[in-house]
Amino acid sequence: YPPESLRRQMEWLPQRKAEDPAAVLVAAITEDWAPPPAVLKTRRKEKQQAEKQAQARTLRQRQAEAQARARAEADRQDACWQQLPHEERQRIEVDLKARLRAENPFLGQRMEGRPDSPAVVKLLEQMRRQYLAERFPAPPADP
C-alpha cells in the first residue's frame, strides 16, 4: 500500500470513532476508504475560509486601485487648475460660491460668516473638482 494512503488513513482514524481501531484501520487501508464526514466538513470550512480571504484580498486590491485612480485624477485636476490664469481661477471661485449660496442658503450664510468652515471648504472643493471634471474631462482609460 502506498505510504501516503497509510499516513492518511492513520490520520483520519481518530475521526472514525471506532470501537476496534486496529480493525477499522486495516479495513480503511485495504478498501481505501474515503475521508470521514468530519474531515470533509473541515475541508469545506477551510475552502470557504480561503475563498473569503481571496475575496477580501481582491476587494482590498480593487479599493486600492480605485483610490490610486482617484488620486491620479485629483492630481490631474490640480494641474489643470494651476494652469488656469489667476484671474480665471478667481472668477470660477466666485461663480462656485454664488452657486453654493443659491443651492444651499444655509451653507451660503455660513460661508459669509466662516469662509474657512470645514464643511464649506469641503463642499467648495467638491464643486471645483466637478467643474474641472466637466471642463477638462479625463482621457479614456486604457483597455
Fold and architecture overview:
With 143 residues, the chain is mostly helical. It has six helices and no strands. The chain has helices spanning 3-16, 21-31, 37-83, 86-103, 105-113, 118-135. The two termini are 54 Å apart. The mean pLDDT is 92.
Number of strands: 0
Q: Treating each run of at least 4 consecutive H or I residues as one helix, how many helices?
A: 6
Q: What structural class do you assign from the helix and strand content?
A: mainly alpha
Rounded mean pLDDT is 92
Give Rg in angstroms. 33 Å
The oligomeric state is single chain
Q: What is the overall shape?
A: rod-shaped
Which sheet architecture does the biggest sheet show? none
Helical content stands at: over 70%
Task: Classify the beta-strand content into a percent band.
Answer: under 5%
